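Researcher: We plan to redesign the surface later, but first we want a full-length starting point. Tokens attached.
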């Protein structure tokens, strides 16, 4: 039975989960999480406990977008290690059940920190939280992809070339008007693609503060979320993406940024300090051409945001504010150009 983005049929879902999720019984309520722009996500409450259901949006989707099956696979693989991910419980590839693919995972009780300045904690803990994010990112890039069964999780070849082709194609497929800064950024990135240095790791693709759950009482990551964009690729892409948040003003594209804030006063490392900490953990002397990785991150996020806006026009966006996202594409492209000038 097909359902809308914001609702699920309890009469269908309850019996299905009792049949396919071990121990599940007594569905009581389904509540959609209000945040997030891509895959609609729901808290499912039952007599047996709390769960999270994450689904593709219904309707026509861009090629390779909303890959909840890939999310399920990578979290299942990482669940066999000590890397912090939710325990995944079931993947439903039968679109007839709810109208689109979905999976179910455990509900992790902890803190999601939506504001990059983390005003709810004191300066010493804020410093520890940012260092913990750095540590977990280095741990991700150190995962033995062969040992966890993910050696075929991405295509071979130059990661940035492949990503450029994918996201420039996605951008063109969802383009609604010509944006000159985006055209300039697209051209520059194509002309300055870094050579393939052979460095390959599991990359998250959307690694930022609000895509992880912290322990309620400690500056400790207990779960990294939203693996839709994960693949095998170049680890510096994740580092550039994370540092992009330091360069963004608050509220652009639904992401909290720190542009113009006094990072030292907040206890948050500067971009140079953050990259240096990552390099120390990974045994590197530094990252050359870092501006490219930041600019590339802005380009890819702008392409994603344009896709969200296009889905709003098509009537199948997850977030009620999705239509406004088109306004953020141009400033994101401009910030990408700042990173390379």
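Model: Full-length starting sequence:
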């Amino acid at each position: 039975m097909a359902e809308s983005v914001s609702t699920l049929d309890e009469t269908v879902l309850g019996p299905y989960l009792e049949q396919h999720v071990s121990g599940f019984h007594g569905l009581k309520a389904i509540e959609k999480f209000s945040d997030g722009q891509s895959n609609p996500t729901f808290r499912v409450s039952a007599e047996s406990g709390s769960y999270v259901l994450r689904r593709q949006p219904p309707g026509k989707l861009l090629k390779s977008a909303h890959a909840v099956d890939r999310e399920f696979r990578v979290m299942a693989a990482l669940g066999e290690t000590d890397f912090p991910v939710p325990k995944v419980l079931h993947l439903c590839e039968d679109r007839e059940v709810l109208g689109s693919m979905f999976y179910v995972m455990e509900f992790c009780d902890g803190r999601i920190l939506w504001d990059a300045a983390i005003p709810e904690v004191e300066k010493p803990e804020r410093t520890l939280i940012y260092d913990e994010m750095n540590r977990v990112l280095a741990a991700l890039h150190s995962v033995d992809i062969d040992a966890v069964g993910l050696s075929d999780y991405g295509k071979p070849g130059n990661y940035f070339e492949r990503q450029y082709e994918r996201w420039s194609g996605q951008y063109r497929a969802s383009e609604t008007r010509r944006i000159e800064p985006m055209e300039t950024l697209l051209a520059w990135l194509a002309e300055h693609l870094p050579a393939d240095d052979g460095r390959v790791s599991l990359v998250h693709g959307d690694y930022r503060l609000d895509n992880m759950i912290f322990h309620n009482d400690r500056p400790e990551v207990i779960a990294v979320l939203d693996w839709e964009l994960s693949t095998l690729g170049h680890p510096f892409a994740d580092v550039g993406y994370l540092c992009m948040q330091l360069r963004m003003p608050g509220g652009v594209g639904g992401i909290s940024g720190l542009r113009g804030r006094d990072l030292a006063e907040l206890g948050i490392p500067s971009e140079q300090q953050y990259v240096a900490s990552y390099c120390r953990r990974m045994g590197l002397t530094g990252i050359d051409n870092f501006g490219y990785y930041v600019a590339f991150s802005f380009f890819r996020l702008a392409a994603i945001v344009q896709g969200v806006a296009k889905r709003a026009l098509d009537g199948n966006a997850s977030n009620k504010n999705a239509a406004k996202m088109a306004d953020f594409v141009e400033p994101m492209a401009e910030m990408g150009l700042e990173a390379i000038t």
